[in-house]
Specification:
This protein is an alpha/beta fold. It is built from 9 helices and 13 strands. The protein has 2 domains: 133 residues, Nucleotidyltransferase, domain 5 (2-Layer Sandwich); 155 residues, 2-Layer Sandwich (Nucleotidyltransferase, domain 5), CATH 3.30.420.
Amino acid sequence: MKHVIALDVGGTGMKAALVGADGELLHQARRPTGRERGADAVVADILDFAAELRAHGIRRHGVPASAAGVAVPGIVDEAEGVAVYAANLGWRDVPLRALLAQRLGGVPVALGHDVRTGGLAEGRIGAGRGADRFLFVPLGTGIAGAIGIDGRVEAGAHGFAGEIGHIVVRPGGTPCPCGQRGCLERFASASAVSEAWAAACGDPDADAADCAKAVESGDARARQVWQGAVDALADGLVTALTLLDPRTLIVGGGLAEAGETLFTPLREAVRRRVTFQKLPSLVPAALGDTAGCLGAGLLAWDLIDTTGPSYPSEVTT
């Protein structure tokens, strides 16, 4: 059976799959990234993991993978296939595409940025399916974004397109590690909500999920923290939709797991802020933590599918 290898490399764990032509996940595996052992060890583990998947595919399906796709964090030169920099993995200028192609017997390999790759899957086969223009915004430790146009995700001239987390929404506000003050992710990321709620409730171990539960139970302090994050997020999203005019706005990541506790006030906050802009559909992400792997599979199939970007309208996850 014809298939491709898909790898999603995170700061703490790696997810992998063999993906069939119909989008079926034929085999899935996970393992720790092992970043504490250093960048060279992480790269070696990625190569070993990919080789194990190739061998599994040959044993199980009788043929080697036709291509491979890998999604990694940090700064990525997708055109050259180089993982330029990732602070959480400690690597610089790793020619990952070439290394993987060599290890996998010369098959074509696609390298993608983790958020853009996850956004590709959400836009093409997930919550944004059918939308010609979408914006995917995951709310996690930080806030990033993926700009989708006609089934592709825009990387930008230098690989930085979609960095909505560094839109300044509170000028002169909290310093951000990027060097600016008042960036969106300092107010509306899961980590920012966790920090604000821990300070408000006096429990250093409290997090964003605890804050959401407190909001649902009517806690006034939690509601103030939560609304502050929602307002900041709405300001950032309206700036983005003013520039990009997406048809669908997909919000994912850990904070989105609060469901309507987030989406009901967020939709209202965005609605209040738009004037001439067209209000997009604002929906939760659909693919969860399989998005990166599915997106890497899409990148791989795109290398060998001359009919253009596709998976069928239904994908087995």
